[in-house]
């Protein structure tokens, strides 16, 4: 068996290439992990945007409640069913599908 330097160097370079490529593809900061982290970052940004919009709406509602009595009156009427003194409250009920027309049966 003859020692072939060129073949040994070639195999050594291939092994070195594999050793250097392993962390790139399978290590803690691999390409796959970076793709996953970018996806998670985008999901978190979307969630943050949704929450920021909700917070902005709540802040506007708080400012409206602090400034005007009309908003407080509207909420008390719609959520609590409150009415003013000497007011008459009418509650309209929509008929269901099977109650569209009243039955006109004759009493026996």
Helical content (DSSP H or I, runs of 4+): 55-70%
SSE sequence, one letter per element: HHH
Weakly predicted, low-confidence segments: none
What general outline do the C-alpha atoms trace? Answer: rod-shaped
> Residue-averaged pLDDT, rounded?
83
Quick one: biggest sheet?
Answer: none
- Percent strand equals under 5%
Query: What is the rounded Rg?
Result: 37 Å
Class derived from helix and strand content: mainly alpha
Number of helices: 3
DSSP strand tally: 0
Write the layout of secondary structure elements.
Elements: H1 5-26, H2 31-67, H3 69-80
Helix pairs in contact: 2-3
Question: Could you please describe the fold and organization of this structure?
Answer:
This protein has helices spanning 5-26, 31-67, 69-80. The protein has 108 residues and is mainly α. It has a domain at 28-80. Helix 2 (31-67) crosses helix 3. The longest helix is centred in the middle third of the chain and has 37 residues, at 31-67. It starts with a helix and ends in a 28-residue tail after the last helix.
Question: Summary?
Answer:
By secondary structure, this protein is mostly helical.
Question: Key terms for this structure?
Answer:
about 110 residues, 3 helices, mainly alpha, rod-shaped
